[in-house]
Amino acid sequence: MRRNSISFYLLSIVFLFASCLGDSEETTVYPSDAVITSFALGTLKQYVTTKAKDGSDSTYTKDVAGNTYKFYIDQVNHEIYNPDSLPYGTDVKHVLCNVTSKNSGTITIQKLNSDTLQYYTSTDTIDFTTKRTFRVFSLDGTNTQNYTVSVNVRQEYPDTLLWSNTATNPAFAEANAMKALSCNGKVFVVLENEQSSVSSIYSTNETSGTEWEHLSFNIARPLPADASQNIVSNGNCLYLYNANTIYRSTNGEDWEMTANAHLKRLVAASDNTLFALSGPGILVSSNDEGATWTTELLDDNASLLPTQDLSVCETYSRINEDTRTIKFIGNRDLATYPGDTHAQVWSKLVEGSDMSGKWMYTNPNDLPYLMLPRLNALQVTAVGARLLAAGCSDTQKKFYYSDDGGIYWYTKNSYDLPGQEAITGPFAMTTDSHGNIWMVFSDSGSVWRGHVTSDGKSKVPTAITE
Rounded to an integer, what distance in angstroms lies between the CA atom of residue 92 and that of residue 127? Predict the structure, then answer.
């Protein structure tokens, strides 16, 4: 009994001593946050393909500084991504990345083909060809959080014209002149056939381009041979000038007369305004579909107006959506003006519905080596705020482009004509409502649809917490 009492006494002392120590020390509390706070890429490899002088492809690699591409962390939806895509051809199958968490919580990554988690380490490469799931654990072990990580890469070469051959139509190969227009989700091609002395119209859905329908008309008289020079579109309606009469149609088949007029040539339609040449050096406009016409104001000599190879297109302000500029571009008759080496470019600024402004002439003498040259059968179209121009030439295989409304023009290697061939015969060109460029060629009857790829820059996302 005495031994048991001593043992009990000694045990009591131990517990008392431990209790006193516990009262004098602070209790350690571990954080419960499970949050990823930063994500950055290391150096990446990009595979670049170029063409040699003999036309063969060659590929080389270059380093991409991954840490210059900022990643955003959406703490609401738990997503991590780079809004500015990595360059085309970047290898994202073998990526080193640096990931940190709040209070040094444990970071893991889910395997590609299973739910198994493995510890993340900055020295092991990760396959980001698909979205990956990271899971972070709080230090106290009570909380976890999953994050979906996307590493975005450009799928096309940036700022490049890419083309696809959608169809070949024998009827197009027989045309001696043609014009393409976009209206109500369709692309129309007006053909002039010198043998039959009449014109015909074909149409296709702008999302396809493979099937072309030969349209019939409800107009008693046939379309004249020069119909391609007197048909315009404002995107919603087609307008045709035929035998001193203005006609309107929404589908290219059913036409109704809007007015009688005496014009030399119908030039363009912009919203509710028609533009036409009523005589040499006289540009007129109508706000009532051709019933009455008003002479347009010019800031320079009317003899500088183009009279052939006419194109009219619009570009919109990046700052004010109610501001647009109408471009009137073409050539003068070379027999009358043999000294012309550049196209004639005119611009009209429109604020809202106010069409009263003057047409402004772009003088080619200001900086002649950057002006649009005089190209045979010149055609110009707008893609966003950029103008593209092409014409018949034995050597010119690229577009001319302008980003300043037609003042200065350039060429670039990534803006090839379809098939990388020069234009040697009649052709037609337009831009549809989706920003696709359409080109039709009479020498082959081929139809091409192209688009300009993005520069890879995205808008900075909103509602993001970092």
Answer: 6
pLDDT tens across 103-130, in order?
999 999 999 999 999 999 999 999 999 9
3-state secondary structure the chain: CHHHHHHHHHHHHHHHHHHHHHHHCCCCCCCCCCCEEEEEECEEEEEEEEECCCCCEEEEEEEEEHHHCCCEEECCCCEEECCCCECCCECCCCECEEEEEHHHCEEEEECCCCCCEEECCCCCCECCCCCEEEEEECCCCCCEEEEEEECCECCCCCCCEEEEEEEECHHHHCCCEEEEEEECCEEEEEEEECCCCEEEEEEEECCCCCCCEECCCCCCCCCECCHHHCEEECCCCEEEEECCEEEEECCCCCCEEEEECCCCEEEEEECCEEEEEEECCEEEEECCCCCCCEECCECCCHHHCCCEEEEEEEEECCCCCCEEEEEEEEECCCCCCCCCCECEEEEEEEECCECCCCEEEECCCCCHHHCCECCEEEEEEEECCEEEEEEECCCCCECEEECCCCCCCECCCCCECHHHCCCCCCEEEEECCCCCEEEEECCCCEEEEEEECCCCCCCCCCCCCC
pLDDT surpassing 80 at residue 193 = no
Question: Is pTM, for the whole model, over 0.85?
Answer: no
> 219-265: per-residue pLDDT in tens?
877 788 889 999 999 999 999 999 999 999 999 999 999 999 999 99
Residue 431, token pair as written in the block: 């831009």
| pLDDT grade for 12, boundaries at 50, 70 and 90 | very low
CB neighbour list of residue 341: distance below 8 Å, 6 or more residues apart: 364, 368, 373, 374
